[in-house]
Amino acid sequence: MLRLTSRVPGVLGALRRYSSHAAPTTKMFINGEFVESKTTEWIDLHNPATNEVVTRVPKCTQDEMQSAVDAAVAAFPSWSETSIMTRQQIMFRYQHLIKENLSEIAKSITLEQGKTLVDAEGDVMRGLQVVEHTCNITSLQLGETLPSIAKDMDTYTMRVPLGVCAGITPFNFPAMIPLWMFPVAAVCGNTYVIKPSERDPGACMMLVEMAKQAGLPAGVVNVIHGQHDAVNFICDSPAIKAISFVGSDQAGIYIHERGSKNGKRVQANMGAKNHGVIMPDANKENTLNQLCGAAFGAAGQRCMALTTAVFVGESKEWIPDLVERAKNLKVNAGDQPGADLGPLISPASKTRVCDLVQSGVDEGATMLLDGRDIKVPGYEQGNFVGPTLLSDVKTDMKCYKEEIFGPVLLVITVDTMDEAINLINENMYGNGTAIFTTNGATARQYTERIDVGQIGVNVPIPVPLPMFSFTGSRGSFRGDTNFYGKQGIQFYTQLKTVTQLWKAEDVSHTKAAVAMPVMK
Ligand code: NAD
């Protein structure tokens, strides 16, 4: 029997063991078992704070990936026929297990991804909330009924699973984003193959281990690893009916096109450039703190990070105070007490961020705070960049046009809210935006006129809770149906419509059952 209070024992040790390789390996998860890959190609995964190798991630062979799909195909008939209340019970147990193991998962995230422990716990928590919401499947998967549409005739719809679905995830939320995917798919009756980011798959491996402990049958969720070949395999596999992707534009556009061409349903959440608009009537203290947290938290490696501050009118006088606050943030390894932001994911990422900052300077922006040469004692090999602020940024600069994905805040000043709205609506992305104001009418007008999918009013990172959906728009999204919430259920199900005729004259009368019916 499952002990809900038990922790997943030594999960890192269970998932990786020292083998003939120089570093522990990350396994696949196929048909309910952790399996060592037989590949000859491995990707070294480094701790971003030290650049020491933590594990080696396989580029799975074609046969291994096929066996994951085969397991999902084999599991589908019985899983899709498992009652919804049974699936719901598994999700109840699952959310409990995740909660119990939250800090262990967070430690794995900090080790592989670099973010601070408290931020890593938030990563798990936001995914956990999606799992908690799946416990509501008994309401979420309801169809519709129109009785007596004609004489003795009723029409009703059923939401039924698609079959085998697949997910491809980015490095920046190693727990939350896998949890946007396979629990929602599985609770609807689908089976799943997930390819977590090759840069930090550890949290996903822990999460599938817990799903198994919660009672998810073998084959319902499978994990493969790799890069382009794994992505192409998923896009081309005839058995896979739908693909969920979260990551960069380049990969998202490619996967959306290739998957769609193969007749699959595809949802792709991609890059962003999120603007925070600061009105002169805003609460100064709160606004500056929120800007700092949303721009530099997670070292800016959030698709909903506020990357551009648009100061309207006199609010620009607060810019020096913003710089002072940014200076006070503590950059350190994610597991060190008091760290506000950790390292970037890789040396290449650090180089890219620094080059984009330099391009801004070269194109005429003013450097207000330069975090590029930061040294973190004890972690000299880490990929650290400190909070960086550039002002006098223009919309034709490279640093504005490209997603930086680092702790860099661009500062733009305008005279009116109209100018701010026009500037933001001309940007290609539509993931998120925030306005800081104490005037309800200003906020209302902003939310009406801004063409961005997720808007915060005095909320810097307005990622919706899972009773709503993640509704990034324009260049930040491809597909028709968004992640999680009602939209997530729609993505992972299709409608069947039944029109039935039961003639009144055919009614038969049987003996009444008097015992209380028990549904299972
Ligand atoms: P990425 O695109 O490099 O990787 C995402 C996944 O795609 C990985 O599993 C990777 O193996 C695969 N991949 C990478 N390059 C590929 C290619 N050329 N062809 C096919 N597959 C490829 O993204 P990342 O660097 O891991 O994540 C950061 C990006 O993700 C940022 O652009 C960020 O804005 C975006 N993101 C978006 C959201 C959102 O909800 N909109 C959320 C998180 C992250």
Structure summarized in a few sentences:
The protein is 37% helix and 20% strand. It is of the alpha/beta class and 520 residues long.
Structure commentary:
There is one protein chain. The longest helix has 20 residues, at 62-81. Strands 14-15-16-13-12-18-19 form a seven-stranded mixed beta sheet, sandwiched between helices. A six-stranded mixed beta sheet has the order 9-8-7-10-11-21, with helices on both faces. A three-stranded antiparallel beta sheet has the order 5-6-22. The relative contact order is 0.13. The chain has 520 residues and is an alpha/beta fold. The protein is built from 17 helices and 22 strands. It has helices at residues 11-15, 62-81, 84-100, 102-113, 117-134, 137-140, 176-187, 202-214, 228-236, 249-261, 284-296, 319-327, 347-362, 398-401, 417-426, 440-449, 485-491; strands at residues 28-30, 33-35, 42-46, 53-58, 145-150, 153-161, 164-168, 191-195, 221-223, 240-246, 265-269, 274-278, 306-312, 366-369, 388-391, 408-414, 429-430, 433-436, 455-457, 473-474, 477-478, 493-501. The two termini are 19 Å apart. The model is unreliable at 1-21 (pLDDT under 50). It binds nicotinamide-adenine-dinucleotide (NAD). Nicotinamide-adenine-dinucleotide (NAD) binds next to helix 9 and helix 10. Residues 34-498 form the Aldehyde dehydrogenase domain. Its EC number is 1.2.1.27. It comes from Patiria miniata. This is methylmalonate-semialdehyde dehydrogenase (CoA acylating). Pfam families: Aldedh (PF00171).
